[in-house]
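Support request, please re-run this one:
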Amino acid sequence: MTHYDYAVIAFYFLFMLLMGGLASRFIKNSSDYFRGGGQMMWWLVGAAAFMTQFSAWTFTGAASKAYSEGWPILVIFFANAVGFIANAAYFAPRARQMRVITAIEAVRQRFSQANEHVFTWLQIPLGTLYAGIWLNGLCVFLSAAFGFNLEHTILLTGLVVVAMTLLGGSWAAIAGDFIQMLVLMPVTVVAAFLALREVGGVQAFIERLPAGHLDIAAAFDSPLMLVWVVAILVKQFISTNNMLEGSRYLCVKDDVHARRAALLAAALFLVGPIIWFIPPMAASILHPDLGAVFPSLKNPSEGAFLAISVTTMPAGMIGLLLCGILAATMSSMDSGLNKNAGFFVKNFYHTVVRPHATEKELVTAGKCATAVLGILVIIAAINFSRMEDIGLFDLMLQFGTLIAVPYTIPLVLCVFIKRTPSWSGWSTVIVCLVASLLTTRYLDARWLESVLQLVQPLTNSEAGYWTIAVGLFVNVLVGVAWFVGTMAFWKATPSAERDRIEAFYSRMLTPVDFAREEGANSDHAQARLLGNLSLAYGGFISLLALIPNPMAGRLGFVFCGVVVVAVGVALKHSARKR
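Re-run finished. Output below.
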């Protein structure tokens, strides 16, 4: 790390705080604060959907998997693309047509007020723990890069994220996502190019990789690997296509913009992973012993992306890469903070504590909730950093499979299945959580070894694959069976409840008339603001070409700057046309 890298990072923090202040001009009520007033353009929300679906875990925990095993990690991210294609085909427009401020409001309309409280008080701790994992993953990267104490890094970074979210709410979060998506993609292209050049080109990269890193056919030779691949496809479909995650589309103008946003996210997930995991796989060639490079890291392979970046990138570019990785995590965290604060305020504070609260009071309560949740996220991240017996890769996937999937199964099924009673929602969650508990207790890797009478015990990777696969399939089978089984009680459902459910589905299937329902739009203001911000940030990146670096490094900065400036020019032109 050079002083140029530190200057780049300092500029990034100032820029993001400024953006939070500028975005606050769009906030006039709680709808603006929590979902952008339902006025956002598809390219803004699509970029945000992409950025919030990954974090620094991609460049630490996931990169460690690319470093040690190669291709299997691509399954997770391509599965995200499949999930977003399903969004575009079905879920995204229906999510926008629910016409709510928070997804939990839709839970109340579909199920009941009791379900609203159950899902609110389940989602807030779940979202806090997820954000803690993301923050921990980010700070593992930052602490390795700077040589700082991990817990101190978590504290400082967490406070910055909270400050930005407090300033601008969903507008700041999504605007920041868009700008950093513009930066992250070209920077990682440069990182991949420099990594390939360092190992001798594409042919040398393929020839020098450890055996099996690119052997996709291995999935069909190993039944356990094939089961894991299928499980990941199902898991990512569930995690991207449910009523809760549909909240990302509550921000867009209408169902057409929702489809476009989903397709943009899908396209980015088809391209991004191929670029991102070239550097950590190249690190397996150039740095076969990362323990010597990062002796202070609990799992040295989690520093693979940083190791190759330090080896190949010019002065200042590592700082730019760190900003992109920081942004990826901030987008996950601040959207999580904003979303969970919205759940607390709109689905508890406003309905139970202060039913007659003014819009100003709700915005203030939202900011207070964001601050408290931010502190809890920091505490969770510090505790995750002290866990010695599980790496970031397994921590993220096992948490998602065994804890988050049970919560989301009824929120997927209810989009398709209408005739279930109100209690089908919360009861399915409880049944699935019990199934998760019993699965981890009785169907672990040792059980599989005994059933198959294996002579050699499963490796740690194989045991992790089994834990995720069995947990996913048990949850899906049990959850679907229970939820569908409750249809037998539909006839006993009171008529008032049936009418409420029918009204919900009627509303969800009715296209949004933006001009009539939302009123005046802010299309030109969004394009103008993001265009100006893109021009400013792209100009700054272009100036970094003046740093005394080899020509390849200077051209890398020019490439990144031109990409961002070009998008800024296009947005400004679009704003003038409107």
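The radius of gyration is 23 Å. Residues 3-521 form a domain with the Sodium/glucose cotransporter fold (CATH 1.20.1730.10).
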